[in-house]
Design brief:
Layout: E1 2-8, E2 20-27, H1 30-39, E3 45-48, E4 54-56, E5 60-67, E6 72-77, E7 81-87, H2 92-101, H3 119-123, E8 126-127, E9 130-131, H4 132-135, E10 136-143, E11 149-153, E12 174-184, H5 196-202, H6 210-224, E13 232-236, E14 242-244, H7 245-254, E15 260-262, E16 267-270, H8 272-278, E17 289-291, E18 298-301, H9 307-325, E19 334-336
Length: 337
């Protein structure tokens, strides 16, 4: 465990926003976590994983707990499945690569998503037809107020589109210490979503494998998304909106090329990136920040921008999309004030 005072969080958030934490404590075991919780004020406490889905607006008073809980182990298996447990602080992409190396299928479509294992169920991260909830078995979390360990089932996590109970009713109340995933020994390939099929063709892949699909996903993401190690960003800043069918049909009537996917009998999901691009925001730059030129969903910090800069830009985009299309977008990134 390490305890740093008045430390910059620039290296701990993928946006690269330079704010300071009054106290930064790295937790490497549940014992350290419980001990720390008993010693600090919980009124000013922020839990931070990979920092890949946060936008800091100001310096952080009190304590930032950095989840560094590691470890990957098999807890059960049968002929068709393997249950793999990973510490909440494990790097997500490294976990995906570990599972692929073992020929455990189910999360290859989630390759190269930044962040930690603990953030995966919190955000219900998803890409190319797969979401965390599809492979999730259970998680263990430490209750901040009591230091007690609680196990959450799939149902108890209340997964939704980029949502879980940890972003809603239980926000800030738990630190996710480990997550167990149910993976397949016999893969079911999901290749029809997005550009995966095209990329596999470009790769001249004729015999599908989880390794090939992972590589295709990595190629696609690298081709259109900025590397946060080079350009500050948090990936998709906005959620794809779910709107009434009548509104989606109205937009499709005016813009036949608009992307829209059925959700249920009453609603459809629109592509937020298409809306933002069509409104003319893609590639707009305001000094040291702006909208990425290859992906309109991604807001970027080119170096030295503040959280307020990024937030104000997102507010302008929200208002413009509402004005032009009648669609209310929602921020996917967590705003930390």
């Amino acid at each position: 465990m390490s305890n740093l005072q008045n430390t910059s969080l620039k290296a701990y958030n993928t946006f690269g926003i330079d704010v300071a934490a009054e106290h930064l404590v790295s937790i490497e075991s549940t014992g350290e976590l419980v001990k720390t919780l008993a010693e600090i004020s919980q009124k000013e406490l922020l839990i931070l994983g990979g920092g890949s889905n946060v936008l800091f607006m100001n310096d952080i008073k009190g304590t930032v707990l950095l989840n560094k809980l590691e470890g990957i182990s098999v807890v059960d298996e049968n002929e068709g499945h393997v249950w793999v447990k990973a510490g909440g602080g494990v790097n997500w992409h490294e976990f995906v690569l570990h599972c692929i190396h073992q020929n455990w299928a189910g999360i290859e479509n989630l390759s190269l998503i930044p962040g930690s294992v603990g953030a995966a169920p919190m955000q219900n991260i998803g890409a190319y037809g797969v979401e965390t909830k599809d492979v999730f078995h259970e998680l263990e979390a430490i209750e901040i107020s009591t230091g007690k360990l609680k196990t959450f089932s799939n149902a108890e996590c209340q997964f939704g589109y980029r949502e879980s109970v940890f972003k809603q009713a239980l926000k800030g109340q738990y630190l996710i210490s480990s997550v167990t995933f149910k993976l397949d020994k016999k893969p079911t390939f999901k290749t029809s979503y997005g550009a995966i099929t095209t990329e596999l063709e470009n790769m001249k892949v004729t015999d599908f494998s989880i390794q090939a699909i992972s590589k295709a996903v990595i190629n696609i993401r690298q081709s259109k998304l900025p590397d946060p190690k080079v350009t500050g960003n948090a990936g998709s800043f906005f959620k794809n909106p779910v709107v009434p069918i009548s509104l989606a049909e109205s937009i499709k009537k005016e813009y036949p090329e608009a992307s829209a996917y059925p959700v249920d009998d009453n609603s459809m999901k629109l592509a937020a990136g298409w809306l933002i691009d069509k409104a003319g925001w893609k590639g707009k730059t305001y000094g040291n920040y702006g909208v990425h030129p290859k992906q309109a969903l991604v807001l970027v910090n080119y170096g030295g921008a503040t959280g307020q800069n990024i937030y104000d830009l997102s507010t302008e985009i929200l208002a413009d999309i509402k004005s032009k299309f009648g669609v209310e977008l929602e921020r996917e990134v967590n705003i930390v004030r």
